[in-house]
Amino acid sequence: MYRGLWNFITRYMDDSHAVPVFLPVMIIGWTLIGVAAGLIWCIFTGSGVLQSLADLICAGGYAGLILGLFGGSFFLYRIGV
């Protein structure tokens, strides 16, 4: 997934501009995935979405931070950018 997104971004811009685009896209993408997974969990368990809103935002933020920022940074470090 990281490699595919990196190849897509570098296809349309050079490496010096690709890094500032890659990391925010990874953070936003993983945050949305975390919030969507939390919403699906709330729907299946029957708990109220409004009562769990703080937990959903927190889970999405942690997913964006850990998987998006740190995962994207480690990926860029590994490929040598």
Description of the molecule:
The chain is mainly alpha-helical. The chain has one domain. It is 85% helix and 0% strand. The chain has 3 helices and no strands. The chain has helices spanning 2-12, 15-45, 53-79. The protein starts with a helix and ends with a helix. The relative contact order is 0.17. The model has no long low-confidence stretch (mean pLDDT 90).
Give the SSE map.
Layout: H1 2-12, H2 15-45, H3 53-79
Helix pairs in contact: 1-2, 2-3
Task: Considering the chains and any ligands shown, give keywords for the structure.
3 helices; 81 residues; mainly alpha; elongated; single chain; 85% helix
Give the C-alpha Rg: 15 Å
Report the β-strand fraction as a percent range. under 5%
Q: How helical, in percent, are the residues?
A: over 70%
Query: What is the H/E order?
Result: HHH
Low-pLDDT residue intervals, each spanning 5 or more residues: none
Mean pLDDT: 90
Classification by helices and strands: mainly alpha
For the record, the count of structural domains works out to 1
Overall strand count: 0
Main β sheet profile: none
Choose one word for the global shape. Answer: elongated
* Helix segment tally: 3
Quote the distance from N terminus to C terminus. 17 Å
Task: Summarize the structure in short.
With 81 residues, the protein is mainly α. It has helices at residues 2-12, 15-45, 53-79.
